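Standup, Tuesday
Yesterday: got the pipeline producing structure tokens again.
Today: sanity-check two examples.
Blockers: none.

Example 1:
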Amino acid sequence: MTSTLFWRQLQLGCATIPASQVNFGEHVRLVIDIQCQHVFMQHLFTQAHCSNEREWQIWLETDAASYQAGTSEFITRLGSMIRHQGLLAHLSLRENLLLPFLYRGDQGQLEQAMDELEEVASWLGLLAMLDQQAGERTTYTHALVSLGRCLLSRPSIIVAQEVHVGMPPEQLEQFKALSMAALERLGAGLLYLTESSNEGSGLNFSRTLTVE
């Protein structure tokens, strides 16, 4: 099922994000400062209080229906990779990877993710660490867990920050290769939030939107 993420013109403090969209399979870069990135993501994951669909500011359209930002139907179709927020320290890496499915309360989705978890973890190089407590981990491991969740949930659209920032050069090259391969494997659309058009992800973007 194809999906498209839409948003109307958004006023975030002094910044204006022009109306635009991200199609399934399309990679779009949004150059915007870090404070506005966080506000934008709040709009994505928090349901607006309005009764009229025409008032929706951010929504996802599929072949079957439209879903308002913040609703459970919207969130289950949207993947996220947020900088330095891939792990909860008191949980194992296995539990961290399954965390979105535990929150959703959908037993079928949880069982499917559990069935696929070890294959995904092996592909990411995390298999031997699955039952270790997360504790303090590197930026690289945080980013791998975020990427693993997307591989397990197979979202229509992924919203990502620069999760690679702060990685040593060798890990950075490994993560670039894995993230590009994962996007090809998923076929999902990507909205990439960054403070600079020289962000160094190695990804190819069909469009770049710049917000002053």
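Example 2:
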Amino acid sequence: MRAWGVFCTLWNLPLALWGMGEEEVTKAQARKAEWQLLAFCVWLHTDGYASSTCINYVGAVKDWHQSATRMPAAYWGLALYRMPTLFRAIKRRNPAKIRDKRPWEFEYSLAVVKGWRVGGQWNFGEGEAGHLRMVTWTVICVAFEQLMRLAELVTTKPPSVSMRRPLKWVDVEYEDAAGNTLGYDRVGRPVGAPVRAKMREPPSKTRPGGGWLILPFPEGWQEGESATAAGPMVWHMQRTAPVPREHAKEVPLFGMKAWSSSHPRVVQISQHKFVSVMHQLCNGASPVIRYKDGGNLGLHCFRVGGANRLIDIGASAPQVMAAGRWMGDCWILYARRQRAVLDELTCRMSAVGKASLKRRR
């Protein structure tokens, strides 16, 4: 709807396709509304949006118009015949990208931590560049461990549902072994002995109300050591670049810059900046993470990797569904490994089959 508002403002067009009253919609009004939707779809397509996104946006505008005016075209016996023709045309011109949703493997995390160790502890450097690397790595840990979509943690070009309520500093709480909520010092650093963190779950299409995510701390953890666990990383980030509690409701949890009294305005890290810094982390890993099709590590690579990691360590199907907050069996699409792994499994299946055959003989 933000894109629709920009389009209508740019071309001085009304937001509503036809009137807000109960008057009958004429054929001329329907043709004018269809031309407006056609132009909106072409405008999106020429701006680089995928064909599927253009179609979804047009559908969202039609749904909004129906709910706002309570006057759907079907009520008046009208049909927008030219829209399907345009959809087929843009699909042929820009077909959907068929790509292997390559997962972020846990071995990648270990390689990054190993490569960025300084004096026995991981260190992403000082200054603005170091802060960005720390924030990016924290996002990776949270997304991988909690099976989250990247769009729920960073600002993406296509607006996501989570942008309605992006994570702020106030959306994280820490608890000790007795279940007591820990506090913060005068500059905004969390204090105490945490055993778990509670983070508000951003809203999504399937869970518009969100919820709470539990980020446990490994037993016997020490700051500067548990660099692959999401809870300790969020704790370290909030202690390294604290935000006063009076500003906790305003500052994004994963900001592009560290908060300071001289520059209190902080925006959420963008997808472009995140991907750029993620490549820096991979290039500094040991061994260096070199993936020839690195562009295929998309917005869901951490969610895919987290689901596969759970399966690797023996999680059951209900546990994977609960961890990823899936309400159906679509999680099975995420439980995919690389071709090399499948080849190995195929060889093992064949070996078992031959052994069974010998026993029968």
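Quick observation on example 2: The two ends are 68 Å apart (CA to CA). The chain is about 45% helix and 5% strand.
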